[in-house]
Structure formats: structure tokens, C-alpha cells
Design a protein that fits this description.
- The complex is a heterotrimer of chains A (about 270), B (about 350) and C (about 300).
- Chain A is an all-alpha fold and about 270 residues long.
- Chain A contains twelve helices and no strands.
- Chain A has two domains: about 5-50, no CATH class; about 65-270, MetI-like fold, CATH 1.10.3720.
- The mean pLDDT of chain B is about 90.
- Chain C has twelve helices and no strands.
- Chain C has helices at about 5-40, 60-65, 70-100, 105-120, 120-135, 140-145, 165-190, 190-200, 205-235, 235-240, 255-265, 270-300.
- Chain C starts with 6 loop residues before the first helix and ends with a helix.
- In chain C, about 45% of the residues are buried.
- Mean pLDDT of chain C is about 85; it is low at about 295-300.
- The chains are: A mainly alpha (about 270), B alpha+beta (about 350), C mainly alpha (about 300).
- The interface of A and B includes residues 164 and 166 of A.
Chain lengths: ~270, ~350, ~300
């Protein structure tokens, strides 16, 4: 190894360490008895207990926010990938007037701050009696998830050679048939990566979930965890256990599809 | 099978680029027509308009008796072989071959029979269950061909189908395509940028430039009687010598390096009427003893090409009169930097008007 | 098919049909509410005082904001947070991207390690770091004392200045990896033969960086800059969870103040005016960057 690449490796080692430390500490602490959390904490744990996890699912009924999050994020993802997929296909492949302004509009919506639409969405959902319901979260989630999905899928569709579709049409397939028989099977990895990203964004969302739910029966995982703190004391053990539980599925999904996800996330930067 | 006709076809892209200016091309039933020209000349656009992948901004496209200008590709009953082959990567060779028949609702046994026939003809039996990613370049090319063949379409369209093959395979496949055409008696429109491919394959060749057709003729006519300066320079290898000159008031044509010739016997080339370019192929330039030819020159570079020598000459005694290429038999002794004479074959001179570039005679 | 209809018209019609559902969704749940926010912002609308109705009051909400010290404070906190985190993240991200681009071994491990903080809920990241800095005997303080850097460990979250340290750290921890990935993608797009050519021309490592890497990386840097600035400017989750804007309102960003005006104080008119201001600033930032980015792109592509 050259000295320069040794420096690079050292920097990366440090990075991995810095990245991993909070997780390590959270995992260790989530198995540490509550009383010992702040008494001379040591990097190497001595006593490990399962109390916090047990309490999480028995006393706290943490299954409820998990179920809520699964339903809301799942439905948002399904709607976005199906509707957004059709839109992205048209934007990536078909020639029509108004395409450029449309792409611009979608990009603009994807960067505008969520907080700017909280007030009308609250008033709207209240009027429709959708506060503290699943649709009352799924609808607002589409505001950020739909542009994201469309944007990512346009990138994935554009990577497929146009000639494949032309060949299918010359072979006698209509546009939609070509989409179904040729483009969709080839876009499947990209669709999967997009679906995962949309799911992760929806799973992690906090502001809307905080604004449009009232009680534990419809709270999503991030809201439930954030509101764990009691009036007088903070149940850190349970909070950390919940944080681990909330993070694990996301981490597994992202690791399983990391190559595709990185590709989707960075394609914008590469193309400019 | 059917004929194909482009009538006044024009294609202007939204960005203002003109890919076709009033193309009129007629391709007879069963004919092998090659569209050839440099990149950007509009040949691929013309092919794609026949396929229905592009829509003309003006004019009409006919397949047989039918005006298909507004029909989408799937309703035109054509088959196309793409430059990249465009094989469906997620399907096996068998599925690739059957796709077109399946889309047109053919019955299962009929599909199986046709696919088996095409696979046998193209030597693809052994790879039917493989995916395109597992095939060699030549095999992929055959699958692309097979996908077009099984359908028995009205017209075959080829878009530079040989450009991704190595030189040896390209020559073999070229001969195979010629045999295929003879056997199927199919109407074929074939696009290439390679003039040699065009000459060897075409029943007729349409030479295109800047969205225009410069000449449509059988290959040997394009070679022997190029209709314009552009065609003269584009077709043939090594390229034709093009010598600028003038028909002088005394009635002779005077070119570079003291070259003086009787002018062409054409009405456009009367005495003193101005600039006329002489075209002569290197094969029609003979190297003789100094003073024994039409003019003298100096040999600059001699390239042995195996079956012949390609000689780069500089015209004039001093070698200052511009370049001329000649081909000589390999046994001829030619020393570099010595004076030689050159004699042009009077029967094979090509005269072009300037600045129109049209052929005179 | 209609007679005489061109293929292009047909294609366009199909395109609009495919685009319609997504477009309708975006118009209905994003653009229409945005206009509604503007409408609300010029009305008095207090959910605690429904008897007041919703009278039109012109720019009164905006004027109130401009006289509101808490608004200016929140705006200042947001700008401070944005400038500090974006600077740190781009600088560190650049160093990491260069390191990742160079190392042959372990790149996959690093990429995985780097993706996880980015992928987890911000709420979780906030809680992990809050826990690390919690109390006087949290792990951060323990390590600082053990290392001899601090004798009397501070209670981070009760100091208006110190409270920013864990907040900024948490954000840098969570987003630097993402920036590094964006920049790495840009680096990998640079043709390696350019470096070979530069070496043959005798360019030092620094000059290779300055004259080859930096200009070619500019588009990626600008994209990362846009994403990060817009993201940092609307920071909410992180601070809501870590400090709640406190102590007092000393770490309250503009998004949190807006949220509190809306859903704590139920002042929808005033909160909407704040929302509009946030939107306008974001929009101006984005536009400015896009013009800047556009110029940068044509420059590097010329």
C-alpha cells in the first residue's frame, strides 16, 4: 500500500468507528438496567438484561405504532410506486409538450418545506374528519413521497435502452403492452429500490405524523418514541430499545439493496 | 412482401434540425435497398419513419398500397434489426424469437413450428434456452435476424446490423444476408454508413447527405457514374481523386500541376465557362515513365496493400501541384521521391460542375 | 384510431393519461394547500377563538412577524444551524469521498456503514445523541472526564450555547455520509486517464486536486450543497426531539416556531404567515442555487 492509500484507509476506519459508536452505545444501553445507565457508564457492559424490550411490548404496547407505521408507509409506497411509476414512464420515455415544465414542477414540489402545508392540510383533514386516521396520514405523505418516487423512477427508466421498447413495438406490441412485457420486468430492480426508499422516507417521517395524530392509537413509530418521555422522568432504557426496534427493519432493507439505492440517490448528482 | 414508397417526406425536429428534406424513394417489392451516407445524413431517420418510430413532419409513407404515415409501428407489419440488436435481456432466445408472433396472437403450435424453423436455419438450436447475455456477439446478431425472420413481415428494416461485429464476422454475415435475401425474396431496407457494405449488398443504393438523396442507382452505376461530387468522394476505396480546374478560353481543361486535358463533351462545359472538377479513381491512374504521361509527378509515399500498391503522388515536376493517389500492381517498382509520369484513363474520367457539384454529361 | 391522427398526437395523449393521476395528486395535496396557506396568512384565524371568525386582515400577520423577536431569533437559529452544518458536512464529506475513492479494500463495508445513519429516522438519531450527551454522567461527559479534557462536566442541554453542540454533531453524524456518497459518485465519474495525463504533465497531488478533481466535481458539489441547504433550512425533527427548542427558545428553528404557532397556540393565520415566509426563503434559495448550478454546469461541460 502507498502511504496515501494508508491515510485513506485510516480515515475510513475512523469514519466507520464514528458511525458505529452511537449504535453500539444504544444497543449496549438498551440491555443495561435503568438504574445503572448514568452511574459510571463503561464502554464494556457488565450486566445485560432484557427488561426494556419486555416492557416495550407489554407495558407500552409498542406493536401499535409498529402496525400504524407499517400500514401508513406501506400504503403510501404502494400508491406512489403505481401512480408515480406510470407518470415516470411517460416523463422518461414519451415525447409530449409540457414535459420539461412538469419535471420542473415535480422537482420544485420535492424540495418545498413540509411545514408550509401543515396548516391547510390540518384544516382540510379536520373538515374531512380524517385527523387521527390512516388516510389522514397517507394523503399528506403523498406530498413528499410522490415527487420523490417519480423523480427516482424517471432516472431508472431512462437507463433502459429505448431500442428495446422500439423493438417490442415493431414486434407488434402496443406502448402499454411493451411497458408491461419488456420495460417493467427490466425496471424491476429500480422499482424495488424506489419502493424501499419511499417506504423508508415514509417510515421515518415525523412532522406530519406529529401534527395529524392525537393519541397512541394512530401514532407512528417515530412519534411514539419521541413522546416516550414522561412528565418527570425519561425512560431511557425503553427509548433506546424502541430506537433499536425502529431502526432494525430499515437497516436490513437498506443494506440488502444498498447498491441500487446508492445508484438511485446519486444519479441526479452524476447527471447534473 | 410489399413495396415501400416515401413521397415528399420531411422531418424537422423541434430543435430545428432537419433530418429529411422532401425524400422521394421508391423501393420495389422484393428489392434490397441500401441507404448509405455519413452520420447525420438522415438515413436512420428515414428508416425509422418507415418503421413508424418517427413521424414525418410532411409527406407520406406507403407500404404496398397503404398510406401508413399515421400508423404506429405495431400496425405496419414490418420487422426491424437494430444496431444494438435490442434483444430482450430477460427472455430466453426462444422467447425472444416468439415474442412478435405472440404479440400478433399466433397459435402456440404455429409459434413453436416457426421458431424451430428459424432456429434451424440460423444454427440457434443449441442456444434456444439461453438468455442473450450468455451468447457471443455473432449469436446475438443471429437471434436479432431470427426475430425478424419468424414473423414473415411485409418489409425488413436493418439499422446498421453489422457494425457491432468484428471485421471477419462482418464479411461472413454480409454474404449470409445476401443469400437470405435471395431465398426469402423479401423487401429489405438497409441502413449503413459503410459504402463497401452498401455496394456489396444493395440491389440499389441510395446515397444520402444532409437529409437529401444524392443518387439512387444500382451499386455499379453509383460506382461508375457518381451523380455528384459528394457521391464520387464517398463511394469507392481508396477514395476518388478530385482535382479542381478550369475550362480555359482556349477550350482546354487546366488542372493542378500542369495537368491539361480536353474538356468534357457536355453542354455545361463550354470554353471559358469556369470551374470544373475532374474526378478520377486511383485505379484509373497509371504510373509511367517521366514525360510519357499526361503530366509528371513525384511519388511521396508508397503503401503496399498486398494485392496492390497505393501511391501518394505530388503533381508537377516540383511536386507542388497537389496530391494525387494512384494504384499500381505490386510488382511495379516505384521509388519514393523520384519523378514519374502519370496517365489518366480517358474512358473513366468524371467531370463535375462547380459549385453545384452535379455531374457533367 | 381517429383518421389522420399523427403518431405524435397519440403519444402525447397517452403521456397525459399516464401523467394525470400523479399530477392530480401533486396539484391537490401540494399546490392547492400551498395556495390555501397564502390565503390563511392574510386572515385572522385563531382556533381558540372561533367567535372571531376569519376576517381579512391584510398584511397584519406578516407585520406582526417582522416585529416579533422570537421570529427573528428562530430565523437566526435556522441560518446559524444551516451555515454551520452544511459547511461541516460538505468539508468532511469531500475528505471522506476522496478517501473512499482511493481505498480499494473495504469500500463495500464503508458504503454500508455510511448508509445506515442516513436511513434511520431522524428522531432515532436525535435520541441516540441526546442520550450520549444526557445529564452530567452520560457517556460523552464520562469520556471527556476520563480523557482529562474536562474537569467539571457540563449539563449540555441547559446551556443556550452548549445545547447546539450535540445538535450539530447529530446532524453532521447523520448526513455527512450521504454527502460523501453523492461526491463519491461524482468522483467515480472522472476519467482516471485524466489523472495519468496530469501526472505525466508533472502536476503535484495538490494541483491534480485543484485543476482536475475540483472543477470536474463541481456539479456534484453544487447538487449536494442545494440538497443540504434546503434540508437544513427546514430542520424540525432533530431539534424538536433533542432540545424542544430550548432552553427557552434558544435553539428554536423557524420550522419549530411555525409548528408551535399552529398546533400549540392554534394561531392558524399567524402560523400560515410564518409558513409562507419559510416557503419564500426556501424557494429563493433554490432558485438562486439553480441559476448558479446551471451556470456551473454549462461551464464544466463546455
Amino acid at each position: 500500500m502507498t502511504p496515501r492509500s494508508r491515510w485513506g484507509t485510516a480515515a475510513l476506519g475512523l469514519l466507520v468507528l464514528a458511525t458505529a459508536f452511537p449504535f453500539y452505545w444504544a444497543i449496549v444501553s438498551s440491555f443495561t438496567p435503568e438504574a445503572r445507565l448514568f452511574q459510571r457508564p463503561s464502554l464494556l457492559p457488565t450486566t445485560l438484561v432484557l427488561d426494556h424490550y419486555r416492557a416495550l411490548f407489554t407495558e407500552r404496547n409498542f406493536w401499535v405504532p409498529i402496525r400504524n407505521s407499517l400500514i401508513v408507509a406501506g400504503a403510501t409506497t404502494a400508491i406512489c410506486v403505481s401512480i408515480g411509476g406510470l407518470c415516470a414512464y411517460a416523463l422518461a420515455r414519451l415525447r409530449f409538450r409540457g414535459k420539461a415544465p412538469l419535471l420542473g414542477l415535480i422537482l420544485a414540489v420535492s424540495v418545498f418545506p413540509q411545514i408550509s402545508v401543515v396548516s391547510p392540510l390540518y384544516l382540510l383533514l379536520r373538515r374531512l374528519h380524517l385527523i387521527n386516521t390512516y388516510p389522514g396520514l397517507i394523503l399528506p405523505y403523498l406530498t413528499f413521497a410522490m415527487p420523490l418516487t417519480v423523480w427516482l423512477l424517471v432516472g431508472f427508466f431512462r437507463q433502459l435502452p429505448a431500442e428495446l421498447e422500439e423493438a417490442a413495438m415493431v414486434d407488434g406490441a402496443s406502448r402499454l403492452r411493451a411497458l408491461w412485457e419488456v420495460i417493467l420486468p427490466l425496471a424491476l430492480p429500480g422499482l424495488a429500490a424506489t419502493a424501499i426508499l419511499t417506504f423508508v422516507y415514509s417510515w421515518n417521517e415525523f412532522l406530519f405524523a406529529l401534527s395529524f395524530t392525537l393519541g397512541p392509537e394512530r401514532q407512528t413509530v417515530p412519534v411514539a418514541i419521541a413522546l416516550f418521555r414522561g412528565q418527570y422522568q425519561v425512560p431511557w432504557g425503553q427509548i433506546l430499545a424502541a430506537a433499536i426496534v425502529a431502526t432494525a427493519p430499515v437497516a436490513v432493507l437498506v443494506l440488502a439493496f444498498q447498491r441500487r439505492i446508492v445508484q438511485g440517490l446519486t444519479s441526479g448528482a452524476v447527471k447534473g | 412482401m410489399a413495396s415501400v414508397r416515401l413521397a415528399g417526406v420531411e422531418k424537422v425536429y423541434p430543435n430545428g434540425h432537419v433530418a429529411a428534406r422532401g425524400l422521394d424513394i421508391e423501393i420495389a417489392d422484393g428489392e434490397f435497398m441500401v441507404l448509405v451516407g455519413p452520420s447525420g445524413c438522415g438515413k436512420s431517420t428515414a428508416l425509422r419513419m418507415i418503421a413508424g418510430l418517427e413521424t414525418p413532419t410532411a409527406g407520406q409513407v406507403f407500404i404496398g398500397e397503404h398510406d401508413v404515415t399515421a400508423l404506429p409501428p405495431q400496425e405496419r407489419d414490418i420487422a426491424m434489426v437494430f444496431q444494438s440488436y435490442a434483444l430482450y435481456p430477460h427472455m430466453t432466445v426462444r422467447e425472444n424469437l416468439s415474442f412478435g408472433l405472440r404479440m400478433r396472437g399466433a397459435a402456440r403450435p404455429a409459434i413453436a413450428e416457426r421458431v424451430a424453423g428459424a432456429a434451424r436455419a440460423l444454427g440457434l438450436d443449441a442456444v434456444l434456452e439461453r438468455k442473450p447475455g450468455q451468447l457471443s456477439g455473432g449469436q446475438r446478431q443471429r437471434v436479432a435476424l431470427g426475430r425478424a425472420m419468424v414473423r414473415d413481415p411485409k418489409v425488413f428494416l436493418f439499422d446498421e446490423p453489422l457494425s457491432n461485429l468484428d471485421a471477419k464476422l462482418r464479411v461472413e454475415t454480409r454474404a449470409e444476408l445476401a443469400r437470405l435475401h435471395r431465398r426469402l425474396r423479401a423487401t429489405i431496407v438497409y441502413v449503413t454508413h459503410d459504402q463497401e457494405e452498401a455496394l456489396t449488398l444493395g440491389g440499389r443504393v441510395a446515397v444520402m447527405r444532409d437529409g437529401n438523396v444524392e443518387q439512387v442507382a444500382p451499386p455499379m452505376e453509383v460506382y461508375r457514374r457518381p451523380a455528384s461530387l459528394f457521391v464520387a468522394g464517398f463511394v469507392g476505396s481508396p477514395a476518388m481523386n478530385l482535382l479542381p480546374g478550369e475550362v480555359r478560353a482556349d477550350g482546354v481543361w487546366a488542372g493542378p500541376g500542369g495537368l491539361v486535358l480536353p474538356p468534357p463533351a457536355a453542354p455545361g462545359a463550354r470554353a471559358g465557362t469556369g470551374r470544373v472538377t475532374l474526378g478520377v479513381r486511383p485505379h484509373d491512374v497509371a504510373i509511367v515513365a517521366p514525360g510519357a504521361g499526361d503530366t509528371d509527378a513525384r511519388a511521396d509515399v508508397v503503401e503496399p496493400r498486398g494485392s496492390e500498391l497505393l501511391i501518394y503522388l505530388r503533381l508537377g515536376n516540383d511536386g507542388a501541384g497537389g496530391e494525387l493517389r494512384a494504384v499500381a500492381p505490386p510488382e511495379q517498382q516505384i521509388a519514393v521521391d523520384t519523378a514519374v509520369g502519370v496517365r489518366l484513363d480517358r474512358e473513366r474520367l468524371h467531370w463535375f460542375d462547380e459549385p453545384t457539384g452535379r455531374r457533367l454529361d | 384510431m381517429r383518421a389522420g391522427e399523427g403518431a405524435e398526437r397519440r403519444e402525447a395523449r397517452l403521456a397525459w393519461r399516464l401523467v394525470a393521476p400523479a399530477l392530480a395528486t401533486i396539484l391537490l395535496i401540494a399546490l392547492f394547500p400551498l395556495l390555501w396557506t397564502v390565503w390563511e396568512s392574510v386572515h385572522l384565524h385563531d382556533l381558540r377563538m372561533p367567535w372571531l371568525g376569519r376576517p381579512f386582515i391584510g398584511a397584519a400577520n406578516y407585520l406582526e412577524a417582522f416585529r416579533d423577536a422570537r421570529f427573528w431569533g428562530a430565523l437566526g437559529h435556522t441560518l446559524l444551524f444551516t451555515v454551520v452544518t452544511v459547511t461541516l458536512e460538505l468539508g468532511l464529506g469531500c475528505v471522506l469521498a476522496l478517501a473512499m475513492n482511493r481505498a480499494f479494500r473495504g469500500r463495500a463495508v464503508v458504503r454500508a456503514a455510511v448508509l445506515i445513519p442516513w436511513a434511520i429516522p431522524t428522531v432515532v438519531a436525535a435520541l441516540l445523541w441526546r442520550f450520549i450527551f444526557e445529564g452530567q454522567t452520560g457517556i460523552a461527559n464520562t469520556l471527556l472526564v476520563d480523557a482529562g479534557l474536562v474537569r467539571d462536566p457540563p449539563v449540555w442541554f441547559i446551556h443556550s450555547g452548549l445545547a447546539w453542540v450535540p445538535v450539530v454533531l447529530a446532524d453532521v453524524w447523520k448526513t455527512t455520509p450521504f454527502v460523501a456518497l453523492l461526491l463519491l459518485a461524482g468522483l467515480q465519474n472522472i476519467d482516471a486517464s485524466l489523472y495519468e495525463a496530469a501526472r505525466i504533465d508533472g502536476a503535484s497531488a495538490w494541483r491534480q486536486f485543484r485543476y482536475v478533481t475540483l472543477p470536474l466535481l463541481k456539479p456534484a458539489i453544487l447538487v449536494a450543497l442545494i440538497f443540504r441547504t434546503l434540508d437544513a433550512f427546514r430542520v424540525f425533527d432533530l431539534i424538536y426531539v433533542m432540545t424542544g427548542g430550548g432552553p427557552g427558545t434558544s435553539t428554536e428553528p423557524i420550522a419549530l416556531y411555525t409548528f408551535n404557532s399552529l398546533l400549540q397556540n392554534l394561531r392558524f393565520g399567524y402560523g400560515s404567515a410564518l409558513s409562507v415566509i419559510v416557503f419564500l426563503i426556501t424557494f429563493a434559495l433554490a432558485l438562486g442555487y439553480i441559476r448558479f448550478l446551471g451556470a456551473g454546469l454549462t461551464e464544466t461541460r463546455a
